[in-house]
Amino acid sequence: MNPNPEKNKSAGSGKTILASAVGIILLVSLPALPFLFPLSGTAGPDGIAAPGRFHILTLHFPIALVLMVPLFELLGSIRAFQQLRPSVLPLLFFAALSSVAASVLGFLLALGDGFSGRLIEQHMWGGIFTSILLLITLPLKLLCERTSKKTVFHACYFLSLAGSILSLTSTSHHGASLVHGPTYLTERLPPALQRIFQETEQLPDGISLESNAYESLIKPIFQSRCYSCHSAEKIKGDFRMDDVELLMAGGESGMEGIVPGNLEDSEVHYRIIQKPTSKGLMPPSTELPLAPDQITLIAWWIQNGAETDRSIGDLLSAPDSEKVISIIKNMLSSAPAN
After folding, report:
1. Whole-angstrom distance, CA of residue 161 vs CA of residue 165
2. 147 and 270: one domain?
3. pLDDT at 185 over 90
């Protein structure tokens, strides 16, 4: 019994209309999310954070699927591998679907766990832009499939696909910087190359007793161990440590970050001395803890007023500085001359 062509045509048109409607809704709603629910740096309820944690499971799917599309297009143009061409459309569909899922879950993660900052926003908008490009690339591929002749749709399709790959690459780099820090790719390069590629502030080449204590001893610790989550690039818990005033003020916990002369009321000190099993430990237990000497230096600086304009020699003259003298002597003896 032959199927009814009119019925099949009607069903196909209905699916096309439905798919178009879903695509338009996604194209409008994705970029609207950050404006409707702006990232404030304050953690949201568990109902938002819990599904957001699955971002880490979904983000690799669009990366793999999108990169397979040009590979299958290239191989499919070879007669021996022509059977790969029909796979391109399903690959694009699942790439767009997984990209939208990763973008939405990533946004929920930032909203629920209280992330904000410049790098967070770059990563978020990169994911949204990649999803939009893939949602545009998919119907362009459908239009290309309907004709064997090269048309303007073919040119638009390959341009959109190339844009998707470039956007995905940039977004992935920002995501890796959020996890590993912005200097992860360059920190093991020779110093000359690091100065070319790194945008972050470089640590002092050498220190002396006349060096600024905060800039030479304390800030480098915060830079290497804390800024990845508490700076203008990425703000966790509404707490920034790259600005002295914001460092002193503290974050969403309500506890002051630094209270000069008072270790007990300083959240920074409270966090770094927690037990390894404590959820309040900073850096978190998934990362290397601060070295005992680093904790000692931070505590010594806070106890002696947490000032940012005093020299090392000036602070060493303060009471109760004996335990840090050996630490600083070792640093001075190993530091290159200015």
Report:
1. 6
2. no
3. no
Q: How far apart are CA 16 and CA 22, in angstroms?
A: 10
CA 223/CA 241 separation, integer angstroms: 8
Mean pLDDT across 219-232 = 87
Do 96 and 129 contact (CB within 8 A), yes or no? Answer: no
Please tell me the predicted confidence (pLDDT) of residue 12. Answer: 47
Helix axis angle, 60-76 to 152-180, nearest 10°: 150
Residue bearing the bigger pLDDT, 32 or 19? 32
Q: To 5 degrees, how large is the angle CA 119–CA 124–CA 129?
A: 125
In which residue are the tokens 């470089």 written? 202
Q: Six-digit token pair at 326? A: 């050996």
Burial class (CB in 10 A: 0-12, 13-18, 19+), 107: buried
Shared domain check, 219 and 309? yes
Non-local (6+) Cβ contacts of 177 within 8 A are 119, 184, 233
Range in 87-96, 200-209, 242-251 the model is least confident about: 200-209
Q: What is the torsional sign of CA 133, 136, 141, 147? A: negative
pLDDT score at 147: 77
Taking the C-alpha atoms of residue 141 and residue 96, their distance in angstroms, rounded to an integer, is 12
Which secondary-structure segment (H or E) carries 235?
A: strand 235-236
Burial class (CB in 10 A: 0-12, 13-18, 19+), 157: buried
What are phi and psi for residue 311, nearest 5 degrees?
-85, 165
43 and 170 housed in the same domain: yes
Same domain? 152 vs 219: no
Give residue-wise pLDDT tens across range 22-43: 878 888 999 999 999 998 878 8
Number of independent structural domains in the chain: 2
The answer to the question of residue 271 being in a domain is yes
Per-residue pLDDT at 132 exceeds 80: yes
Task: Determine the structural domain holding residue 321 and report its residue range.
Answer: 202-334
Q: What is the average pLDDT score of the chain?
A: 84
